[in-house]
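TICKET: design request
STATUS: open
ATTACHED STRUCTURE:
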């Protein structure tokens, strides 16, 4: 027993003497508490990204340096109705991207898809998360300015409808008064009527020729989702604010 104990101590001592091989440096925070979606009001189309004020103070003091283009804002949309596709898409996104900040898809083909029956007895439809495009046709990839978080630690985001001749666009207000219009992933404005999303090859319901009939969708609507990631230099892990639904617009 004594020999075994001595051997164990010798092994521990040897481990401490071995030069470091780059031990990962982890940022210490409480998941879904220090960084999360906050002040969510789907009725008011409003939410905020919350970052613990003490962390913001460390950034302001120079103790922490955010990785460029973070906190990163993910704004996505899907078209669905009273079915369960929104909860299925949210769960799949949170599972796929919880530990990732660099693998955010650059094309809608790589986004989350889930097969859900719109009503009991109907054939399933592939519901998909889509990225918004801006007025120039570019995928919307936003980063929050950490100095625009308010004293409570909130970075505010609100979306509303704005009418245009072809239908409507979704107007985004974020941070300290920033604004932009959000278009469909195919660069078109949003329109009223579910058939306007299943006419052409680049519409939202053209992913699979075996899809069920989208006209079975009850009370079709545009659902808007928000997620965010943040990272700091010298740390190998990232903070992740789980994706949630922040708005719903009937079509």
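STATUS: resolved
RESOLUTION: sequence designed for all positions
ATTACHED SEQUENCE:
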């Amino acid at each position: 027993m004594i020999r075994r104990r001595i051997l164990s101590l010798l092994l521990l001592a040897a481990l401490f003497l071995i030069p470091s091989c780059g031990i990962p440096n982890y940022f210490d925070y409480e998941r879904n508490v220090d960084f999360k979606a906050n002040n969510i009001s789907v009725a008011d189309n409003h939410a905020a990204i919350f970052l613990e004020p003490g962390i913001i103070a460390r950034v302001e003091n120079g103790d922490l340096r955010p990785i460029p283009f973070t906190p990163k804002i993910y704004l996505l949309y899907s078209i669905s109705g009273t079915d369960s596709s929104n909860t299925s898409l949210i769960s799949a996104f949170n599972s796929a991207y919880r530990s990732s900040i660099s693998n955010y898809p650059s094309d809608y083909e790589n986004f989350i898809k889930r097969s859900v029956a719109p009503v009991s007895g109907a054939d399933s439809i592939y519901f998909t998360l889509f990225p918004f495009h801006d007025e120039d046709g570019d995928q919307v990839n936003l980063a929050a300015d950490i100095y625009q978080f308010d004293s409570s630690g909130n970075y505010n985001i609100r979306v509303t409808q704005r009418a245009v001749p072809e239908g409507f666009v979704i107007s985004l207000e974020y941070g300290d008064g920033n604004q932009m219009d959000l278009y469909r992933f195919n660069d078109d404005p949003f329109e009223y009527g579910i058939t306007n999303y299943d006419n052409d090859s680049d519409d939202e319901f053209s992913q699979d020729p075996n899809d069920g009939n989208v006209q079975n969708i009850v009370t079709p609507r545009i659902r808007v989702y928000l997620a965010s990631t943040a990272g700091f230099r010298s740390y190998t892990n990232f903070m992740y604010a789980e994706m949630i639904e922040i708005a719903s617009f009937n079509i």
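CLOSING REMARK: The longest strand covers residues 239-250. The first helix runs from residue 2 to 17.
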